[in-house]
């Protein structure tokens, strides 16, 4: 009995198989290349979507990851060019979309992950950084400054980010 690989090999010539293997290696290299550039956590929130006419399309699931990848874009491009010279990669295009490749739900946002990864405590600019700033709405109500945001999920994420930063400053 022939395996699926035997059947496919008989259908396609060696050149086609070699080219397909090159594409597979390119798409599988994303995690290694992000690790090499110090942004390993970005690999869980982004992936190589396509390559067309020398442009490598990277899709990510959050605008924060796009900003992080933009800071390393030239280094990423250089690494891809060195590792895959046959693809003639001339640029990287970062696109926002649904970058999750699995059914896993990633709950950490980019800023939360970076705050967790900081190894050196930064000196607060304000000596009273542990006090929350409250904006007076009326004589009886106070606000954390997020009232103008209508998206409840975003509000909650910003609150959690603020708490993480405050905890980091207090430790």
Write a structural description.
With 171 residues, this protein is an alpha+beta fold. The chain folds into 2 domains: 11-96, DnaA, N-terminal domain (GMP Synthetase, Chain A, domain 3, 2-Layer Sandwich); 118-170, no CATH class. Helices cover 45% and strands 13% of the residues. The chain contains 7 helices and 5 strands. Strands 1-2-3 form a 3-stranded mixed beta sheet, with helices on one face. Strands 4-5 form a two-stranded antiparallel sheet. β4 and β5 (142-143) form a beta hairpin. α6 packs parallel to α7. The radius of gyration is 22 Å and the shape is elongated.
Tally of discrete structural domains: 2
Strand content: 5-15%
Q: What is the count of β-strands? A: 5
* Strand line-up in the sheet with most strands: 1-2-3
Task: Write out the CATH superfamily name of the largest domain.
Answer: DnaA, N-terminal domain
For the largest beta-sheet, the strand count, sense and barrel status come to: 3 strands, mixed
Helix-strand pattern? HHHEEHHEHEEH
CATH architecture of the largest domain: 2-Layer Sandwich
Task: Supply the helix-strand structural class.
Answer: alpha+beta
How many individual helices?
7
CATH topology of the largest domain: GMP Synthetase, Chain A, domain 3
Tell me the helix content: 40-55%
- The shape is elongated
**Which consecutive residue ranges, at least 5 long each, have pLDDT under 50?**
100-106, 117-142
Question: What is the mean pLDDT?
Answer: 75
């Amino acid at each position: 009995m022939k395996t699926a690989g035997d059947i496919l090999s008989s259908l396609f010539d060696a050149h086609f198989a070699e080219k397909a293997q090159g594409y597979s290696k390119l798409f599988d290299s994303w995690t290694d290349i992000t690790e090499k550039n110090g942004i390993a956590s970005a690999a869980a929130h982004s992936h190589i979507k396509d390559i067309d006419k020398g442009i490598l399309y990277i899709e990510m699931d959050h605008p924060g990851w796009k900003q992080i990848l933009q800071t390393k874009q030239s280094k990423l491009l250089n690494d891809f060019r060195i590792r895959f010279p046959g693809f003639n990669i001339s640029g990287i295009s970062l696109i926002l979309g649904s970058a999750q490749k699995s059914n896993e739900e990633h709950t950490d946002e980019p800023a939360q992950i970076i705050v967790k990864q900081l190894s050196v405590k930064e000196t607060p600019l304000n000596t009273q950084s542990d006090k929350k700033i409250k904006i007076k709405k009326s004589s009886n109500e106070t606000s954390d400054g997020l009232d103008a945001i209508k998206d409840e999920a975003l509000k909650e994420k910003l609150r959690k980010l603020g708490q993480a930063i405050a905890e980091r400053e207090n430790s």
